[in-house]
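Q: Can I see a sequence and its folded structure?
A: Here is a first one.
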Amino acid sequence: MGVPYEVGPFADHTVHLTVAAAADLFENLPLQILSSKSNIDDFERERFIHSVRDGQVRFHYRGAWREPSLKRGVTPSDVRWISERLARLTAEQWSDAFRAAGYSEPDARRYVIRLRQKVSEGLALEDGS
């Protein structure tokens, strides 16, 4: 098939594909990938938090990936907790993470801007928002 993939000594014996490689696998199938996590235009447009209902945060997801199934819900306090930690990351740390993932500098900058906006949204989340 000639699709590049990465296989490593993963405990769960999984195969890891890049988004482009996964798209190549599905190219000739009657399926459509509606969006991907690696589409900066989609990421910039996509809302972060849909709502808070019954003390649980409902995240906004659309496209080919969906909200993860969790054993317990995510509370506004949980979102604030992780947002506080993400807010501590320096510009250099964000840049290093995206560079290590192979993103171009212009795309990485756009992702970081939007991620920081989402972190700010998480910090401002109230229990009944």
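Q: Show me another, different protein.
A: A second, unrelated one:
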Amino acid sequence: MKHKTRVTDFDLFTRSYIETAFWSSTFEANADGTPAGKETGRQVPFDDMFTERDVDMESLINIQDDCARFQKENAHLLSQWDEEQAGHDFWLTRNGHGAGFWARDLPHKDELSKAAKACGEAYLIPDTDQDGSWVVVVQY
């Protein structure tokens, strides 16, 4: 698979997956809103500080591979789903959020939920790159 380097070039499923990851994930923050690296009791949504442009390249490749694999392996189940909604629900379901495939009144919701859960959880983590700039990595 040839990997893309700009999120705007990704398919709608993958873009929605990333967008959902950002608004549904939080990190521990200092008083100024920067990542703390320790418990502070102050949870900040990722999309308050970061955008998809902050995701490191290895994580972008992993996201593309995860989303492509899930779509390919479940194409027969996803055919009646909106691509954007399916990407959204893939992130929520694999991470055990209170919504996702299972909460929709659409075909194959149970099979898609099982397939998403089988992928395991994924987490956004704030980190720094070689230059000391903040980046987002995906941890499995």
